[in-house]
């Protein structure tokens, strides 16, 4: 069914790979990685032992776990190039098994945050505790700063000019122009690290002179952060009922999964 | 290009804005045309007629769709109102002829526009506040200026001002439009500081520093991070419990042991030699020095046997006090050993001179029949 769409060249190339020809992988192959069809996957699985497939799945899982330490999203191209390699003809099957492992073994969810560029992240599948966890694991102060920024963006309708964020941070004794004793180069952390981690989006506003940017929630934030919980926190801080912010309340509770965008690994790959 | 703004303190704002596209079209059009005056006449006779022109060319009121859900009826009413207000700013052709006046006037207009633009940009926070109508005032100012605009350059500035003002207007409208409570980032920051445990100082010692009152505790951001954990579904970072396995430890240990052994042997070897040297050097140095000074004394006496040497001249080193002291020290040995003598000359100043060495010659021993020395010789000095 899908073979109709594919040009003949890629079909033949995937068959070449299928025969186990250890050709050196060039960049072009990865850029034009096309999803093998289910029949191709079936055929591929027949040629391999279950142990081999399990091994490959385990490698993918390990790759994800290590990449997730720094909270950087995993690109499909990298995954195929560095881990899957010759098994790319059964790639969908491997990914499905990996997602299952994450869910059953680790309690994590493999989420595709960018359908166009095929990027994945790992998200906690377990319920978030209502109060702080009793386990005194070391907390990362950057998350505190991120929470402040995301809260402002959300309460302000989803898009804010960068100056608003910088001014708010200054009021919180964090000056982006100076080196902060806890965070270091704040500006770099916010506009570079958080953006690469996909917590924030830092987009240039056209026609502005001098150049200005605006901040939005990033794709990881959409998947990981609960708007309802943020609103709850706002209510606590301001000693108000979260419902008084009607627009934000509506936004936070409109989705069926009020916590995040409902993407799951099984639906898109 | 048109702008209707109707902000009043407690009313919902109605906002009709032309998009940036429109204003940029205007600017590019105006700038690219060689003959500006006729174009500007058509385009800028009044802003409302320009809107009409745009409407015709774009075929619809899409450009004027407000960014927020204002009621259409009210918008139209406002349109007519502003039409009435702004209509009839006719430009006559006579102004073209007076070039010099024009230049000066134009410069003035441009400068005023720039002032308005910078005031909007700089006082952004101030203008956003719903408690005043500063934005409307700026636009009224701009309207007045616009009456004198003839050429594209000033019109471009007018367009720029409108872009900036509409942007602010949009933000202001979004504030007023929210059905619920508005969100104030400043108040939020204050609450957050309290949450993080800010210790506000009781008395205002520093009147200048109104903003930085109090200090944040060390774990301020950790407190917030902990609260953040409830809102985030972050996957816990994966780390091996026992750390990573290294295959290398044994070789470094051996190297360390070897290194430790080697220095200790060398150290022992060095120790004895050093000690010996020290003992010898101390003795030798003094003796050498004394001999050296004796040499000096002798050479002085050889040069001039008759004149006495002033003691002070002999020992004092004008450039170094410590050397002087050393010289005195060594000279005292000479005197002790009887190789030199000190005496006071006519002026009661100390002088130093040679002694005739009393070396025990054989004749003296025979003459006095000395068999044994009275003074027992001390033990060897090199103990």
Extract low-pLDDT stretches of chain B. 1-89, 206-211
Q: Biggest sheet of chain B: strands, sense, closure?
A: 3 strands, antiparallel
* Strand order in space, largest sheet of chain B: 3-5-4
Residues in helices of chain B, as a percent range: 55-70%
The gross shape of chain B turns out to be elongated
Give the domain tally of chain A: 2
Major sheet size, sense and barrel closure of chain A: 3 strands, antiparallel
Straight-line distance between termini of chain B: 111 Å
Overall number of strands of chain B: 5
Shape of chain A: elongated
Return the structural class of chain A: mainly alpha
The helical percent of chain A reads 40-55%
* Most extensive chain interface and residues per partner: A-B, 64 and 44 residues
Query: In which order are the strands of the major sheet of chain A placed?
Result: 1-3-2
Report the C-alpha radius of gyration of chain B, rounded.
52 Å
Could you report the average pLDDT of chain A, rounded to the nearest whole number? 80
Q: How many strands of chain A?
A: 8
| The CATH topology of the largest domain in chain A | Arc Repressor Mutant, subunit A
- Counting DSSP H or I runs of 4 or more residues, the number of helices of chain B is 14
Work out the helix count of chain A.
Answer: 12
What labels describe this entry?
A: 269 residues; mainly alpha; Arc Repressor Mutant, subunit A; three-stranded antiparallel β-sheet; 49% helix; elongated; disordered N terminus; B: 383 residues; two-stranded antiparallel sheet; 14 helices; 58% helix
